[in-house]
Amino acid sequence: MIWGRLAPPATMGGMTASPWFASPDEAASRLHAAGYLPDPASATTSYLAGALEKPLLVEGPAGVGKTELAKAVARACGADLVRLQCYEGLDEARALYEWNYRKQLLRIQAAGGSETWEQAHDDIFAEEFLLARPLLTAIRRDEPTVLLIDEIDKADVEVEGLLLEVLSDFQVTIPELGTVTATRRPFVVLTSNATRELSEAVKRRCLYLHLDYPDVEREREIVTAQVPELDRHIASQLVETVARVRELELKKAPSIAESVDWARTLVALEIGDLDERAIAETLGVILKHRSDHERAVKELRLRS
Ligand SMILES: Nc1ncnc2c1ncn2[C@@H]1O[C@H](COP(=O)(O)OP(=O)(O)OP(=O)(O)O)[C@@H](O)[C@H]1O
Ligand SMILES: [Mg+2]
């Protein structure tokens, strides 16, 4: 996935300067310009991840901007994004590399048995027959790269073992070819919903950022930036209502993405005041479980 280049890396005396951030403040303003409104901790940790060349582990509930932070770093720094989406059953062949067996077979057939075992082996375990997957792709790139390892907690714990070499040494070992070391270290972001504990070995190699729901002030900024046509007064009502809903004991609290959807809904329905009735009619945009819906209707009415 290639992102637009907002801020191409500057050059200093012929040397290419780091494409990442020069300070926490600069990180905040460049992320802001790229459409991401960071809290101070996100800006500082993003700066540090670039300056220390350490992977950044971002943990938190669904929809608080974990994945978006990695995308925003790529946009803000004029880097390309390489994404490894994790899931149960993800293996080395999908994460690192695999050999193109069909092509290898064709090569062997084409040689027609005229080669010795050594010749055939050297022939087919060459670069031409290698299929690079996201981790290897990111390591080999010469251009500034953000490597997003998304939802690492969804992958089996063995995948974390695969990651260790990449996360600490920025290299990948391919037994038949040797070790590929990054010429230019990618900016690595791992995200997790914390559905399970990650291994200490992975955590030790990363900087850690916990993202949570924003306060009403920042959420209003995010919502109005994404839905500028939303009336200021309704924007305030919306974020305050969402904050109250999040305090209830729910199966799934509304995320920032759902607040933004709600804002779009209110604009589309031309709702001029987010009163009790308007809330009840549009609650399905932010709450997706029946029990949550019922609880919110009851509790919000009780309090109003
Ligand atoms: N700080 C922010 N600034 C601007 N937009 C944001 C911010 N945080 C979240 N968003 C918005 O919320 C949406 C959801 O964020 P994102 O997909 O990054 O969530 P997530 O934490 O990765 O969730 P999940 O765990 O479900 O993958 C984004 O598409 C973006 O529009
Ligand atoms: Mg995500």
- Residue windows where pLDDT falls under 50 for at least 5 positions: 1-14
- First-residue to last-residue Cα separation: 47 Å
Structural class: alpha/beta
Count up the domains.
Answer: 3
SSE order, as H and E? Answer: EEHHEHEHEHHEHEHEEEHEHHHHH
CATH class bucket of the largest domain = Alpha Beta
Helix segment tally: 14
Radius of gyration: 24 Å
- Which band does the percent of strand residues land in? 5-15%
Could you state the CATH homologous superfamily of the largest domain? P-loop containing nucleotide triphosphate hydrolases
What's the rounded overall pLDDT mean? 91
Distinct ligands: adenosine-5'-triphosphate, magnesium ion
Query: Strand arrangement, largest sheet?
Result: 4-7-10-3-11
User: How many strand units?
Assistant: 11
Please outline the major beta sheet.
5 strands, parallel
- The helix content is 40-55%
CATH topology of the largest domain: Rossmann fold
Protein name: MoxR family ATPase
Domain AAA+ ATPase: 52-217
Pfam family, one: AAA
Organism: Nocardioides marinquilinus
Task: Describe this entry's structure for a reader.
The protein is of the alpha/beta class and 304 residues long. Helix content is 47%, strand content 14%. It has helices spanning 24-33, 40-52, 66-77, 92-95, 101-111, 117-124, 134-140, 157-169, 200-204, 216-226, 232-247, 256-268, 276-282, 290-303; strands at 11-12, 15-16, 56-59, 80-85, 97-99, 130-132, 145-150, 171-174, 178-181, 187-192, 207-210. Strand 1 (11-12) and strand 2 (15-16) form a beta hairpin. Helix 1 packs across helix 3 (66-77) and helix 10 packs across helix 11 (232-247). It starts with 10 loop residues before the first strand and ends with a helix. The structure holds adenosine-5'-triphosphate and magnesium ion. Adenosine-5'-triphosphate binds next to helix 3, helix 10 and helix 12. The site of magnesium ion (MG) has 4 residues, from helix 3. InterPro entries: AAA+_ATPase, ATPase_AAA_core, CbbQ/NirQ/NorQ/GpvN, P-loop_NTPase. This is MoxR family ATPase. It holds the Pfam family AAA.
